[in-house]
Amino acid sequence: ELPLLGYVAAGAPIEAIATAETIAVPEDLVGKRDTYVLRVKGESMIDEQIRDGDFVIVEDRKTAENGEMVIALLSNSDVTLKKFYRENGQVRLQPANPSMQPMLIPADQVQVQGVVVGVMRKY
After folding, report:
1. Per-residue b/e over 46-77, b at no fewer than 16 CB within 10 Å?
2. Host domain of residue 17
3. Number of domains in the chain
């Protein structure tokens, strides 16, 4: 059982909303990492096979490498799920949906909250 900490936007960023639920997660998706779960809202990561309503398993980590899928906290307290790239003092948060544009944000206005290590879907 892992804590289900609320929703993350896969689309336009949304305000972080905490919940006090838990969800069963297979142990091999977790390993020895400090992890939690967020429910996805939106379609921005559709080409990574992450859909609206899916659950992402997130390693609690404050740094990310280029190309990793992150939970990013923006300076206005919104949270979003995107691919992470550092570029010339900025961060590019790249959706995996060709109909959506990347977000270019000054690096000091983005905090990595975690890195996605798995996804689960209920039918």
Report:
1. bebebeeebbbbbbebeebeeebbbbbbbeee
2. 2-120
3. 1
Cβ contacts of 83 within 8 Å, gap of 6 or more: 48, 67, 68, 69, 70, 93, 94, 95, 96
Cβ pair 74, 43 in contact under 8 A: no
| CATH value at residue 98 | 2.10.109.10
Name the β-bridge partners of 31. Answer: none
| Closest to 26 measured CA to CA, from 91, 96, 122, 118 | 118
Is the CB of residue 68 less than 8 Å from the CB of residue 84? yes
pLDDT tens digit string along 73-90? 998 778 899 999 999 999
pTM recorded for the entire structure: 0.85
Task: Determine the Cα–Cα distance for residues 12 and 100; give it in Å rounded to an integer.
Answer: 10
Amino acid identity of residue 116, one-letter, is: V
Catalytic residue set: 44, 82
DSSP state of 107: G
